[in-house]
Structures are given as structure tokens and as C-alpha cells.
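Sequence in, structure out.
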Amino acid sequence: MRITGPLLTLAAVAAVGAGVATANVVLTAPPEEPVAVEQATGALALGSPLPEAAPAAPVHYAGWSADREVSVDIMVEDGLAKAYVCDDANIESWTKGPVAQDGPTRLTAADGSLVEYTVQDGIATGTAATGGRTWEFTATVAPVGTEPPTPASSGTEAPAAPAAPVSPAAPAAPAEPAAPAPEAVTGGGYGGGGY
């Protein structure tokens, strides 16, 4: 009897079995990248909304002109800025405008008042002008609802005081002149000026 016939058949069956097993392993292995891509785009594929960016919290800058003649308060919220300049006697102005994305932010009022400033490292520096006079100022970030620090005789600024009670040296900002009904703003403010 010849053994070569059954050995050839056995070798052929083994080769086919090895080929089938290899193909099975290759074709059923989970792909690496398509899974990651599917997971990354799964929210879009399912129609889920993308998360929205949280709105920025209001920022308040409070400070004084270089000669300490006027205080400057700037409130920034939702891409808009409002500024109040006051000397606690005769000078008072309210300005507003959009916050510049690059370059100085320019706030104006109908009476020609102007506050122009830039912010670097949490410090607003710029120029305030009203009633034909101009002042250079520096204002630092302060808690929302506080007054500018009282100017000290040594030329350094004292820490900001809370909005109430108000000392005679740092008066509360008076209410903004009557205007059409402003939108409701939450989150505090100072001086009752609609901030």
C-alpha cells in the first residue's frame, strides 16, 4: 500500500486549515484607528449637540488717574465694557462700547467723553477724557461691586474696600443718567449704574 496519497491529502487539508485560520484571525481582529474615529465622531453621528462654551464671568477694573484726581471703574461683561470716571465733585462720565479683540478698547459717550485702554497681565492702562480734560490711568482687577482703592498719600494704593458701607473718601458711583430701560444684568455691579 502506498502512503503518499493519504499524506498528500493530509498536507493539503492542513495547508487549507492554516490558511482559513490565518484569514479568520486577520479579518476578525478589531481595527485600531477606525474605532477611535468612530468614537470621536459618535456625538455628531448621533445628532447630539456639542457642548457650549461657558460665558466669561464679569471683570471689574478699579483705579485712579496718575495724578489721583479722578477714579476710573471699568466693568467688562459679555464682550461689552462700561466705564465710570468721577472726581467726587464736578467730573463725572459714563462711557461704553465693545471690547476690542486686539488693540485698545475704545469706550465713548454721547457727550464726547472717552475712555481708551488696554489690558495686560490683569492691569488696565489708558486714557480717560471728559469735559475738555484728559487723564492717564491705571486700574487693577477688583471684586465685582467694589470701589476703586482710596488713594494713599504715599502714592501707593490701599486695598479695595467693599461697596457698602462707603467712606466719604471713596463715594459710591451715582446712578447713570436716565436712559431707555436697560436689559437686566445679573451678577452684581457697583454704584447702581445698571452694571
